[in-house]
Amino acid sequence: MPRALGARRRFSLVFAACLLGLLAFAAGASADVLSPESGGSPNADLVDTLWWIVFVIALLVLTGVLGTLLLFIVKYRARKGRVAAQIHGNTRLEIGWTVGAAVIVVALTVVTFIMLPGIKDPEESGGGQSASLAGAQLVSVDQPKVPGGRSLTIDVNGQQYIWRYTYPGGVYSYEEMVVPANVTVVLRIRSQDVAHSWWIPKMGGKMDALPGYTNYTWLKAPKPGVIYRGQCAELCGRNHADMVARVRVVTEEEYRAFIASKRQQIQQANRDATAQRQRLQPRGQGREP
Question: Does residue 238 lie within any of the structural domains?
Answer without folding.
Answer: yes
